[in-house]
Amino acid sequence: MTTDLAKGLHTLAYEIDPQSLGTVAIYPMSPDFLAGWDGVTKILQNRLARDEVLPSYTALTVALTAVTGQPVTLFPGRKGIRDSEALLITTQPIDPWVLHTAIRKFEQLTTGDHASDTLAALLPVGITPRIKNLADFIERDEVTQTVSAPGWFYEAARWELARRIAAEPLLIDGTYPIELRMDTEGNLLAFDHPISLPSGQTRTGHATQYVSTAVVTVPGAANFYLSLDGHVARHLPTWSFAKNAYIDRGVDPADPVLRLPILSPYPKIGRDHARVKGHVADVIDALGLNAITLPAEFGAEAGPVRAIGTPLFHPTGKGPGVRFLYQLGRHATRQLGIQPLRYAKTAMSVKAFDDHPIPAAKIDEAVLASGLQHLRIVCLYSTSTVRRRMQEVMATYSAAPDTSLAGIPDGQTIQLTGRLSVVMAEAGDILDHGPQSRVLNDQAWLKAQPGTGVAALAETFWDPKDPPKDDAKPIVRRLLGEQGIVSQFINSNWTPAKPKAANKAKTKDAQGNETTVKPKQASDYPAIGAMRDLFRQGRRDRRPPGAGHGEG
User: What is the Rg, in whole angstroms, of the alpha carbon atoms belonging to the chain?
Assistant: First the structure.
């Protein structure tokens, strides 16, 4: 980082003074209310005959946010665990009537009983919150000085900072004012200044620029930062395929614009018109606000209701452009009274990723520099596909040209360079996911001569859409670490890219003869990256030669 504001890489990140974040209002939750909530949950599960269903209180939080213009968090707590001492946290006290009415309507919609009134009755008539400084919830590590806070802290802090940024119009080139309005997710919208461009001969495409806000931590800095970014939300001409909508209730420009999930028309199941997903609209109506109605069609101009999605064609690009971000940075700096984070240029540079292997001589130099005489890479695999991928990437590190490791048996040590060797080992009983016990003590590949370090390239399977119930990776990493073995993993859930069509083009050789260029084999970047990361870990491991390894 640098303090010279004329140099370095500019960012849209601003260091936060915790003492400037103001206060939060904490509403208590009694044991009786928690018991009542569990009762409502049981009624919902019985009504739907699904024991895994829980009440979705998004409707309640969005409705309270819409009427109060401030963030609302229900059942706050670290890592999603309900805090028995707090029901709700927000930035300012909420009118007790609003709180009671919203909770009552939510319960009735959830249970399907329009006379139900259990939860609201368990709240004191004049319920008042405890007021505390937001900065009081920040924890700082005594050694590293890094900061942490409960999850709801980040929401409350970014709303307060976004409110300051929106307090004055954003001036484009110091003259043209753009009013920024908050939405119910804490982002800043140029709602009253839509982008409108011709789309074909008869239509006009519309879009809304917005600024996302996030409170984050930054590597190398022991504090919180506000991070801003610019986006473009492109409007859909119809409700088909709409996922969300911006809705301006048109009461007070200071009220946040609603951003609500939408169920698009689906006549086959009886839904002829778009509607708001969940119970948000009904709770807002119960609070006496203007009822939410979705128009059947959109007019020629961008109106108070805007369907948001990803159209196949739209005249507006996906991003706002550098000029807008520059103007946003100047505006945020002025409103917050804080200079943005800037990074100074250093002598180090990061080159583009290449798939060329590290030369054998440099590998041997690195092994010696780490305090070892030799380094053995143990390839732990469960499937034949990953075994082949490991063999192919390890062969590229051989000092001998055109080395192939195909067909080598498990347990046989193959010397790649003077100081680097590899051995294959089938270890499905250790690597496969599941609750089974895993033992490494009797594995032959653990044993090494003094002065020889062992590092493991191991197989795993990971699907972010369906994470395993009993993930073996952290367990295997810990077991290997206990043996003094650093590890890196290759995901077997990978499909190689198809060769580009350009690689199949015809060309001419030096004599002018036409030849067909063979498709270039797609590089296995995950395996290449895993191997390089393993080498980096090995260099950081400065244990004495033979530490953590058996003799053999």
Answer: 30
| Average pLDDT taken over every residue of the chain | 84
Q: Parallel, antiparallel, or unpaired for β 88-90 and 72-74?
A: antiparallel
Closest residue by Cα to residue 436 from 387, 475, 466, 485? 475
**CA–CA distance, 130 with 434 (Å, rounded to integer):** 46
Return the residue matching tokens 């990437």: 393
| Inter-residue contact 181 to 197 (CB < 8 Å) | no
312 vs 473, more confident: 473
Question: Cα separation of 510 and 507, whole Å?
Answer: 10
Mean of pLDDT values over 21-28: 89
Token code pair at residue 62:
């969005």
pTM: 0.63
- Confidence band of 292 (pLDDT split at 50, 70, 90): confident
Q: Name the residue with higher pLDDT: 228 or 348.
A: 228
Residues 12/335, Cβ–Cβ less than 8 Å = no
Cα 32 → chain centroid? 36
In this structure, which long-range contacts are made by residues 73-78, counting pairs with CB atoms below 8 Å and at least 24 apart in sequence?
73/152, 73/155, 73/156, 75/29, 76/150, 76/151, 76/152, 77/150, 77/151, 78/150, 78/151
Q: What share of the chain is helix, strand, coil (3-state, %, to 5)?
A: 30, 25, 45
